[in-house]
Amino acid sequence: MSSPEAPPPLSGLVVVDKPAGWTSHDVVGRMRRLADTRKVGHSGTLDPMATGVLVLGINRATRLLGYLTKADKEYLATIRLGQTTVTDDAEGDLVDQVEADDVDPAAIESAVAALTGPIEQVPSAVSAIKVGGVRSYTRVRAGEEVALPARPVTITTFEVTDVRPAADVGVTDVDVRVVCSSGTYVRALARDVGAALGVGGHLTMLRRTRVGGIGLDVARTLDELEQELSVVDLDTAARGAFPACDLTPEQATDVRFGRVLTGIDIGGPGAVALFDPSGQFLALYEQRGGTARAVAVFV
Asked: Of 26, 36, 47, 254, which is the active-site residue?
């Protein structure tokens, strides 16, 4: 009598509401234990100070993460005007402070508007970007002066939601909402707003509310996941994270073999999730002119 086949390994996305003080690697380590697998990754690092949406992939779903990394992100943040830190956020040592309790709200709006749209952003020196094969933050902590080159990012939305005196005398806190492209440093935005106003600035709060189509509404705290591991299956995850296109049976057969689709408009821009008539996720494709071509096939 043959033994029953073992069920396939658990695969899917887990959306964590990351707590402050945890690194993204810390969260991955906890998930490896909860899911009982080493094959866990994340779709984009959050600094230890930051909270909010951290998308993890388990087993086969880790292949989705590289494409989710390219998705736009949404944040809520607080910028403190009048104080500059070495890291451009509250975790770094204070390097300068000036009186900034009477900054004109109109000037703040103007500085924010100037950083909206396609911009060239200089990343924070204390970042994971490699310089000569060494992380920038490692060089800074070793006492080196690091000047990173500017790179293009897009700030779709940068809006002020509140301006108020901060608890520290002589400084002003500005609450903002940011929607931006992958690779944007929100703490660099805080730095640049402060610099434009001539008073300096740094980030005191950062909460990521969305990665692509995945938001806080489906996120769970680590304590909640400890009680019940909530995994979004691969089919649901792909449909929620990417634009979707449902195929005919003939098209689905071609996609299973990674063939080019002609005479079809699957949408986009960027990667689009393709599904067979039963709703099974098959692949990520991109529209290129009058054809659609495979980015990654999952079956």
From this structure: 47
Active site residue 47: yes
Asked whether the beta carbons of 158 and 121 are under 8 A apart, the reply is no
Model confidence over 89-101: pLDDT tens digits? Answer: 998 889 999 999 8
Q: Give the pLDDT score at 8.
A: 65
> Which pairs count as long-range contacts for 145-153, CB under 8 Å and 24+ apart, including other chains?
148/122, 148/123, 149/122, 150/120, 150/121, 150/122, 151/120, 151/121, 151/123, 151/183, 152/118, 152/119, 152/120, 152/121, 153/118, 153/119, 153/121, 153/180, 153/181, 153/183, 153/184
Number of C-beta neighbours around residue 248 at 10 A: 11
What's the pLDDT score for residue 45?
85
